[in-house]
């Protein structure tokens, strides 16, 4: 095979920070095609080899030229990096990424390992040059014991939980009907007294989804910063959070339009509870499904 250099496929400007900072170094390029639409994925480093995040650029590729129309962050949260893509025998574009650690090097050495792979995710085009990211349906083969509830009404300050659900490997599918100016969400990896907890929060007025981690661990050597992203929703649209909890990994898919991945490291062995809550205003939970997840090694 012979290669001839033609020209750069895409160039960046490190002085521009909107809509997203494109960094100083790009690596791990992948190309997806959906008919006439071409999507370039690449991971971004800052100065000093600081790994930031993967970006995507959607556009067209004609006459050996890539013309980007839109650009954005592929996965939010600050831990997903260096995605790789394949097209399977069902013509699906599947993505995996490396989930970096959110703890000190000494803690990783003490644990004896560092870094995990993300869930396999399907990518598909959305209107406006955006990407849809959804977990592959084959993950349903991991589902074990199932709990279901629907029609739950929560007023400000109220909570809902199952006392018999205490686990660190769960899949949750929650459909919320928000009221105006409401704030609500789901707590995971909660200790019985609430000393440790990680909150997945939605604010209807600003359409912001956050992973709040300031109480996620008693250990000061792990990350505690929040992650927040705006998810554009239509008036009256149901908010669906598809949550995968796998010990130190939290992956959240929001309405098929946004994917967040984070790391948490609770210290207490009893930090296994979950709870739904209304912090402000009211919310109706149209449906709640929770499954205990089996290990992939036992299938």
Write a brief structural summary.
By secondary structure, the protein is mainly β. It is 2% helix and 53% strand.
How is the topology of this model organized?
Blueprint: E1 25-34, E2 37-46, E3 50-62, E4 65-73, E5 80-87, E6 93-99, H1 105-111, E7 116-117, E8 121-126, E9 130-135, E10 143-154, E11 159-160, E12 169-178, E13 183-190, E14 198-203, E15 208-212, E16 227-230, E17 239-246, E18 249-254, E19 258-263, E20 273-280, E21 283-293
Antiparallel strand pairs: 1-2, 2-3, 3-4, 5-6, 6-7, 6-8, 8-9, 10-21, 11-20, 12-17, 12-21, 13-14, 13-20, 14-15, 15-16, 17-18, 18-19
CATH class descriptor name of the largest domain:
Mainly Beta
How many DSSP-defined strands?
21
Alpha plus pi helix count:
1
The average pLDDT value, as a whole number, equals: 96
Q: N- to C-terminal separation?
A: 41 Å
Question: What sort of overall outline do the alpha carbons produce when their principal axes are compared?
Answer: globular
Describe this structure in words.
This protein has 299 residues and is mainly beta. It folds into two domains: 25-135, Glycosyl hydrolase domain, family 43 (Tachylectin-2, Chain A, 5 Propeller); 143-292, Sandwich (Jelly Rolls). It has one helix spanning 105-111, and strands at 25-34, 37-46, 50-62, 65-73, 80-87, 93-99, 116-117, 121-126, 130-135, 143-154, 159-160, 169-178, 183-190, 198-203, 208-212, 227-230, 239-246, 249-254, 258-263, 273-280, 283-293. The strands form four sheets. It has a six-stranded antiparallel β-sheet with strand order 10-21-12-17-18-19, with no helix packed on it. Strands 11-20-13-14-15-16 form a six-stranded antiparallel β-sheet, with no helix packed on it. Strands 5, 6, 7, 8 and 9 form a five-stranded antiparallel β-sheet that branches. The longest helix has 7 residues, at 105-111.
